[in-house]
Design goal:
There is one protein chain. This protein has 174 residues and is α+β, with helices and mostly antiparallel strands. Strands 4-5-8-7-1-9 form a 6-stranded antiparallel β-sheet, covered by helices on one side. The longest helix is centred in the first third of the chain and has 22 residues. The protein is globular. The C terminus is likely disordered.
């Protein structure tokens, strides 16, 4: 391994560790995530995803540039303004998506904030069974969600289309 590759691997490991610490020890310890769960026995299986694949998507795609990840950006659906949503990143069969709730909604936050919330979802909803992922609010305005799901998923299982949710708190990782 070259010296450059070794330093790069060390930086990636440090970034992942920082995300874990921020997600496991949030400032608001009562923050809850909503994990997808299957309605028995009427709904078909959801597509589970893999913790490591979601972690790779967070570390390699959401936080591409550590300096830029800490710069506040406007997230909006309005063309020509800020970071355009909806937007998704993926690794393997793990898809991490962000979107605002409606057309006029906008919020200013950092990609780092999205990565922390995605890590929280990964720990709370992907690492523990049934491994389907989930969704959580992100940003100061409360109008934006981070979502993790397994891919592929049928039309009926897309976020907002009849999915059952289970409330989970950060402390509830059993």
């Amino acid at each position: 391994m070259s010296a450059f590759a070794s330093v790069e691997a060390g930086i990636r490991t440090l970034a992942v560790f920082t995300l874990f610490v921020a997600a496991v020890c949030p400032a608001d310890a009562t923050q809850e995530v909503l994990c997808w769960k299957r309605k028995e026995p009427t709904s078909p299986d959801y597509t589970p995803t893999v913790f490591k694949q979601c972690l790779n998507a967070i570390a390699d795609q959401v936080i591409v540039d550590a300096k830029m990840a800490r710069v506040p950006q406007l997230f909006t659906r309005t063309p020509g303004r800020g970071f355009q949503v909806p937007h998704a990143w993926g690794s393997g069969n793990c898809v991490i998506g962000i979107d605002v709730h409606s057309e006029g909604d906008e919020d200013t936050l950092r990609l780092y904030d999205i990565a922390v919330q995605a890590t929280l979802l990964n720990i709370g909803c992907v690492a523990r069974p049934p491994h389907y992922g989930g969704t959580v609010l992100v940003g100061p305005q409360g109008v934006m969600n981070v979502t993790i799901m397994g891919w592929p998923f049928p039309e009926a299982k897309k976020p907002g289309r009849g999915i059952d949710l289970e409330r989970v708190t950060v402390a509830d990782t059993s």
